[in-house]
Amino acid sequence: MGAPEGEVKKILLVRGGFGKVYKGKLPQCDSTIFAIRLDTGGGQGDKQFRNELQILLDYKHNNIISLVAYCDKEDAKIIVYEYASRGSLDTHLSDARLNWIKRLNICIGVATALNFLHRGVGTLEMVIHRDIKPENILLTSDWSAKLGDFGLSLISAINNETDFVIDHACGTQGYVDPLYLESRILTKESDIFVWCGFI
């Protein structure tokens, strides 16, 4: 799958941890998007890129940011997303317009997305996000929540005997479940612990 035809008008928004983030407009449908272009030097972020792409292709939900297009070439790794016009939740936490009803609806939206990821659907496996934080929750014009940034997420088989994974603890410092950090035992409750800290 490649980028849509026609030249995309783009503006550099920020330089992220693994590349540059752009805002753009698709000329043929006048649709606003945002895109991340991975810095390909040294292979940094390649695993996170593939992880993000796999989850966005397989796990579709109203409260998960949607994939528009992607480019996966050696010298150009780009993911194009639907545009969430209000940006990330962290920029609004002190905003008076973000009243308690909107906050509650955002909480419900993120909880619904996590429930979808943690359950697995049909043949899909469980996804544990591992990096829940306000910066990874995007907001649309009507303040609906869209969970994003799946680079650190773990896709894990679900069965009746095993509901945890032992791995090296990862995530953003200050947002990682302390029990997971100490034991290296990851469960879906690690995502829930972190998210409940914002409520």
CATH class of the largest domain: Mainly Alpha
Number of domains: 2
Largest sheet: 5 strands, antiparallel
The best one-word shape is: globular
Q: How do the strands of the widest beta sheet line up side by side?
A: 1-2-3-5-4
* C-alpha Rg (nearest Å): 17 Å
Strand tally: 12
- Please provide the ordered H/E string of secondary-structure elements: EEEHEEEHEEEEEHEH
Mean pLDDT: 83
Poorly predicted runs are 1-5
CATH architecture of the largest domain, by name, is Orthogonal Bundle
CATH H level, superfamily name of the largest domain:
Transferase(Phosphotransferase) domain 1
Q: What structural class is derived from the secondary structure elements?
A: alpha+beta
Helical content band? 10-25%
- CATH fold description of the largest domain: Transferase(Phosphotransferase), domain 1
Number of helices: 4
What would a concise description of this structure say?
By secondary structure, this protein is α+β, with helices and mostly antiparallel strands. Helices cover 24% and strands 28% of the residues.
